[in-house]
Amino acid sequence: MSFSPLINNLIAALRCLPGVGPKTAQRMVFHLLERDREGGRHLAQALEEAVTKVGRCHQCRTLCEESLCYLCNNHSRDQTVLCVVETPADVMAVEQTGGYRGVYFVLMGHLSPLDGIGPEDLGMDLFRARLEQGEIKEVILATNPTVEGEATAHYLAQLVKERYIQVTRIAHGVPFGGELEYIDGGTLARALVARAPV
Amino acid sequence: MSFSPLINNLIAALRCLPGVGPKTAQRMVFHLLERDREGGRHLAQALEEAVTKVGRCHQCRTLCEESLCYLCNNHSRDQTVLCVVETPADVMAVEQTGGYRGVYFVLMGHLSPLDGIGPEDLGMDLFRARLEQGEIKEVILATNPTVEGEATAHYLAQLVKERYIQVTRIAHGVPFGGELEYIDGGTLARALVARAPV
After folding, report:
1. Structural domain of residue B26, as residue ranges?
2. Is residue B189 part of a domain?
3. Residue B97 has pLDDT above 90, yes or no
4. Are A48 and A97 in a shared domain?
5. Residues A22, A30: contact at Cβ < 8 Å?
6. A68 touches chain B (CB under 8 A)
7. Nearest CA-CA distance, residue A5 and chain B, Å
């Protein structure tokens, strides 16, 4: 590539965004410089500010710029039910169902010994302290239905049970709206095992 | 959406990038905040700097931060052959062929009366002045092979011919490596008309 140094630099910098390769980055740069400099300036400010100021909620570990996130700080939420998820995006996914009134704990990952991610990286000290406050009556494990997510759920379940607190796992089964023919065998097998009386 | 205000703001700001919708923007934000804050900070700086400092070459109108771009400023280039393209990305496309040693003129668009884009928006004053300097011996029209690109090439051809300067258009024909079966009829028809003796 042989654009001007500032353009080359911006193309390279855009590659830090997931899913952005050299051609896409080039297209973005020309779009911004030719058609939307105001948008580019605004993006630079929003980015600088978010990267500098967004930290983690001291209680649930989700991303937020205050010491307590708006969910932990919301006293109309049921503070006795704790839903454990892997990422802030999962918090949003559960919130969008509109059916959950409790609070969250965000692991920011899952157990993955091969990548060197152990319990201490998932905020287990904070999680244990939360359980020992004695306020929590139920812990819902909503980690991903993947091998690592299941292993993490298993680990957390032990930890919660030891403290005689109720612990549940979100249901596995056939997704709503799907067709049996196209659902993978593992999911269907679990759905059969976990069948419920009508 | 109901993340923290700074996160919401960044998600909205990222939507100014072409091809980035709400889900992609959300994924980018979480990636940057959870895994690559340094990259985000660097991107913010590169963006701010490019948006503020990148202007246009005073001679060829391409995007660059100096008053003359590195191609116009390169005296080993043949300053008597002028290739007219629509965008800075097209300059790169021609440069990457490695076969062109002349200089460029960048229209920054094409004639499009419906969008209110007339000759004055394509730097025609600068283009005429360039022709009248008397240095240019050939103008190569490399606007896109689209309806607007062809119309623009036609307009430019008139302008150059009036000044008794040689004017050429890049060849239309079947793209190299393609199969006739899959080439559109219009292209094939033009390739037949423009057939050359072997």
Report:
1. 5-53
2. no
3. no
4. no
5. no
6. no
7. 8
